[in-house]
Fold:
Amino acid sequence: MNGALVFIDNKEIPIENEQNLLELIRKARIDLPTFCYHSELSIYGACRLCMVHVEGMGLVPACSTPPAPEMKVSTNTGEIRKMRKIIVELLLANHSQNCPTCQKSTTCQLQALAKRLGITKVRFKNQLKEMPADESSPSIVRDPNKCVLCGDCVRICSEVQSVGAIDFAYRGAQTVVIPSFGKALDQVECVNCGQCARICPTGALTPKSEVDEVWKAIHDPSKVVVAQVAPAVRVAIGEMFGLPPGTTTAGQIAAALKAIGFDKIYDTSFTADLTVLEESNEFIKRVTAGDRIPQFTSCCPAWVKFVEQYYPEFLNHLSSCRSPQQMFGALAKEMLASELKVNREDIVVVSIMPCTAKKFEAKRPEFESDGVRDVDQVLTTQELGRMIEEAGLHFKELGPESFHMPFGFKTGAGVIFGNSGGVSEAVLRYVSEKLTGQKHDAYEFTSVRGEEGIREAKLSVAGKEFTLAVVSGLGNARKVLENIQSGKVHYDLVEVMACPGGCIGGAGQPVFSDPLVKRQRTKGLYESDRMLELHKSQDNPYITELYDTFLGDVGGHKAHELLHTSYSSRKRILDEDLDISSGAEKSIDISVCFGTSCFLKGSQKLLRDILEHINVKGLDDRVNVRASFCFEKCDKGPTIKIGSRIIEGCTTEKAIEAIKREGLNLP
Amino acid sequence: METIRKFERVFEIIDQNQRSAARLIPILQAVQAEYRYLPEEILAFVATSLGISPASVFGVATFYSLFTLKPKGKYLIRVCNGTACHVKGSMGLYGAIVKKLELKDGEDSTSDMLFTVETVNCLGACGLSPAMVVNDEVYGQLTPQRVSDIIDEIVLREAHNESDAHGA
Amino acid sequence: MNLMLTGLNKIGNDFIVRSNAAAHRILVCAGTGCLVNGSLKVYEAFVKAIRDSGLNAIVELKKEEEGIFVSRTGCQGFCQIGPLVTILPEGIFYTGVKPLDVGEIVEKTIRNGDVVERLLYVEPDSQAVCRTKEEIPFYRRQHRFVLANCGTIDPEDINEYIAAGGYKEAVRAYLEMTPEEICELIFASGLRGRGGGGFPAGRKWDIARREVNEKKYVICNGDEGDPGAFMDMGIMEGNPHSVIEGMIVAARAIEADEGYIYVRAEYPLAVKRLRKAIDDAYRVGLLGKNLFGSNHSFNLNIMEGAGAFVCGEETALIASIEGKRGMPSPKPPFPSVSGLWGKPTIINNVETLSQVPLVLKVGPDGYRKVGTKDSPGTKTFALTGHVANSGLIEMPFGATLREIIYGVAGGMTSDTGKAVNDGFKAVQIGGPSGGCLTRDHLDLPIDFDSLKTVGAMVGSGGLVVMNKNTCMVSVARFFMQFTQHESCGKCVLCREGTKQMLSLLDDIIEGRATMETLDLLKDLAGAVQKGSLCGLGKTAPNPVLSTMKHFRDEYIAHVSDKRCPTGKCKALVKLIVDEELCKGCTLCAAKCPAGAISGEKGKPHRIDDKTCRKCYICVEACKFKAIKGE
Structure:
């Protein structure tokens, strides 16, 4: 098949592994419209926009038609143009009409298509039944009134991220994309990665904006507003102002932030360097002791929630290090108050992140001290771009300015955190010198670089063999976890980023559809690394100084207090206990865990035996039996709770014994 | 013990279906046969047991018209609106039932949950159109009067059962 | 001879010997229609009456014994005159039998050989009394091939199916034929899929046969959702073993070892009978491991639908079996290559599969004797609407509408069911996916291809005959409402397109439309037809397009004259008060929700047409029938 020719609008195009006509037509540099085709997702065939005419076959959807030699394809017949218009009109007739105030305005594909097809009037009646938008999530706003039901979000959430927090519900014209049982997004398994919002062609799923709060802080003279800029932001924001993807604009960002009114501009790469030291030392300690290996990275909040939710048994494998964003927040609030001579509560830390999950992370209850949040606001790259636009700045023309010291100084290691493989490489740059006790000139570990979603690398450092896995995409992470669990693979260190390609592909980044964009951004970060004077976190003089003057030892007491954290299982989803039998008022509660792990370990039989015991003993009125969804003691299951006592590794005998002990031993 | 028995049924249902996600629809059918509707917590439990996301179970449960997430009345009246019945005035029957049961706009169940009324595409009893089915019993060649009588009969029977129950 | 075949012969012979030992056999129709009419009570009454009169009532043929054999059968098609009872060997055919009639039948017919005249069918036109089924035009003018055994055998008795020659073809397919030969034979017979499109079954099978895969599936599509069609139900209820035998042959043809029958959940009786039939087939060794001594296996499962018309589409049906939302997927890949769980799968409709054993039995040439060149064989139809006789019928392809309507169906009727001479207006064929045929098509030989040329399709086989009082715009709207309701919501054109088409039709029916509405409706219908993802969407515009083509005047009357020629569209009717009849009781004015009625007490009232919402509450309220449409 390869090499055979297809005629696309009379142009000969050779087939080179393209699986469908759409790919081939794109190769012919014709921008065929589509909402639901993405090479990384399964073929869905719902938007009907990519219909083309194939001689002998009539109208076919290009996305699901394999190319065949000598095929004659027309992409712009009168019939096709008429159909495209009708499709867009139909969508517009079931769509919210407030385009100018929509977050996605100017990047919305429906809007772009309407313009491109010259649609000036919708001939159909608007039949939209307004539904309330869901703003419950700290990361994502879901507005069903703007949904075109292309299913991209549903597929990326389940196929790529293996989460499935949203799915289609109902049927026909009532179809909606919605979390289970119509619950709010913050009540379900959503990990806030925002990939749904990244792929959404319209404004139905968008990152939640905090721009107003940030302006408010800036305009408040009593506040000192401090910015931290994540590494991946600098290679992407330029896209919003016409620069090619991957162009590094750290200096312009600093200039823009100053112009907007930020008081201090720092670099999250600095705390990324700090993370390297803390995390590497934790790793060396653990790997030497053979304790909780593999160690998982913990800088991605979507990944952390994923583990908390689905694999609590692995929680102690996560590095206890806070993410660079949270390390920065904690340090800034702790140190800047005295340095800038302001009250702690008057410092406003604003993160500029490529990420929507960082908004969620900043709001986690553990990241606050004395009622003051470590990080106050999180802006996405897109939101910063919009602030720059609002401020009327000509971003491209801004003269580069520098970040403030000390938190503005970074090494290349801290910069490559922004792409998949970067954390691993930064750690290796540290560990290799630490373990050998020697300085090396070379600093690049290219074996951990690449685009594959799961990459493995074996390295030998100081005579020790290390196996690393670099993973991006949570579906890939699930595969790796399952393989680790089943003993198929062994790793020492596993880096996981929820977004495919790492933070450069985050949902807060400027909207992109061409997969090449991610490659360019990654390239930009590696180039920045090369351009910088230093490449290893341990060489960062300000980090050394920070430990000397403030933190003490790496991994020491103060460091632990400010730079480390702990995790908790989220397997138990709120209020999902299930009443099985209710006794009278003064009765004892018995809950049997039905989380997956306990279920597999036999909690079902256990419940049955307990119920039988109760029945035989005539205790029906004295106990309430409930099925609970998780006691978060998965490794020790099956778990039951009788009264206030939790019994791990419970057997029928143990349960009956415990029931007796509650004084329920009637004949 | 009633609830225990019912929960036992959910186990049985899931076991009988090999705890296989592919058996989701038969599982939901069996759950609905047991509860007369699909309670949210049972669906969440089914999702957990089968290892699929609750959102997709919700998606399946809302796709098929025979599944219901709301409890339905003790007597489910389904008026056939297939072509043959439609031609013979099935919507008039439907209207007569709604009127008889004093259902307000958009309601499909009576407040005492004795009756729920809905339409169904075709019962295959076209030769006897217009037709309807009450729970499992099919009635054919109906008129609004006949429908009203059938409802009266049920109400009477229920009242009788009720007084029997109290008497005993 | 193979052991299995010997076994089958013995089962069959035993049945015949036992059955012949009984002096009479009473067949009580137990199809859905007759059951609704109380045929089960009739059956019970027969058993009781026979026993009361001192005779032996045989309800199950366990041994050779004298007595009266009472059986229940599947649907005999003529539901409107049920419950139907046939007395064998005489073949006396009683209609409308009630439990109270049973004593008389036993006394007169069974004991004394007399006929109960009042229960015989009387031909309305000629007043001729019909003693047997064969004398009734409704049956006489059909060609019952696949339905031949429906209504004559007990569908719950596998022995009777075997006695009628059943399962021999299944055995033959495994022992005497190669998969390739079976595919060739089916292809040569010209058997085309009865589910709608008419794709050659042999070709479909051959594609799946050629796929190299350890696992393949055969699926029987019994998700007959077309409102008003119940042919597949009739077969599944009346002759379930024929479907199973067809599936066994199909499994052999593609070397599949597992099958599913997907049945609409609204057909509980079909499900029950199929389940029993499958259990019995396993028991006899016709399903399961090492079939007929070969090393092949075939396991058969039943899956009940859960209420979604779209699951009749094969990829949606597969999704549903897989436990997902029944949403179609793009083709290719076709199920024959990648179907259930990604394995090669053939999906055939109930009627197609039940034809398969018959095709093997009579051979390709024998099969081709009936029907037309490109559409051989017969087709079942569900005949309803304004005709004297409605029910389940079977005709050879190539029969004309005239033969069906004036032959089998006994001519047109008025809205109230009275026979009328010149009442024909149109036929909607193929249900919501089909189109309408008019007077011009009365003599068109009906087959897969001829219908396509006139914008209709065989579809599932629903046949709704409509008289002159039928508003064709309303008919189009009825079907559009159906498909709109049943759209799965996946593709834009079907989800949004059907919704907008329905809204445009509402505009027409309710007097808001302009001529542009008609153009827009046509454009939209064309786009939905060409661009939808699956068959449901692609065929949804057919009723609209064909009524617009054949009854354009009617549309124009609604649009430009704001008038419904049949007076059926309420919103276009002007309600007026007949001043002679009006007593001025003011009740109508009090009840009018729009305040459109005015007048003094005791004097005739008036309705303001501009304010009137055509809710007809006044019409119902008026005790003097003084308010009517103009």
Remarks:
- Chain A touches chain B through 36 residues (CB under 8 Å).
- The first strand of chain A starts at residue 5 and ends at 8.
- Residues 5-76 of chain A form a domain with the Ubiquitin-like (UB roll) fold (CATH 3.10.20.740).
